[in-house]
Amino acid sequence: MLQNSKYSVWFRTSKGDGYGIVSLMDGTVSGGDNISSYTGTYVQDGDKFAATVAVRRHTQGPASVFGVDNVDLTLSGKSTPTMASCTGTAKQAPSTTLQATLIRIAD
Predict the structure, then answer these.
(1) How far apart are CA 104 and CA 94, in angstroms?
(2) N or C: the chain end with fewer CB closer than 10 Å?
(3) In the 8-state DSSP scheme, what is residue 64?
(4) What residues contact residue 73 under an 8 Å CB cut-off, 6+ apart?
(5) Are 63 and 89 a contacting pair, CB within 8 Å?
(6) DSSP structural state of residue 70
(7) What is the phi/psi pair of residue 88, to 5°?
(8) Residue partners of 21: CB distance under 8 A and separation at least 6
(9) What tens digit of pLDDT does each residue of 20-69 get?
């Protein structure tokens, strides 16, 4: 089960990979990386979870892992108390699959 905490996140698609930081707190997602911010929500059912996350560019830089700057993600995955993995797609690039791994950062 996902704990309220900060997580490092590593993600990839066929177009590239990246990393960032996310905070999961009582069903809300917030965070970002060097070019984008993340905001959204998640729900849990045991060790399974689903999330919707808006990714918005805030700084000029390399192309995103979707090839478009602003995307709305739908994700699903499994978690343990210290890490999670998930897959999903963006409404704006439905043929591109995202894979992500989250690792809890110690308090």
Answers:
(1) 28
(2) C
(3) P
(4) 40, 51, 52, 53, 54, 55, 88, 89, 90, 98
(5) no
(6) -
(7) -175, -175
(8) 6, 7, 8, 9, 31, 32, 33, 105
(9) 999 999 999 999 999 999 999 999 999 999 999 999 999 998 888 999 98
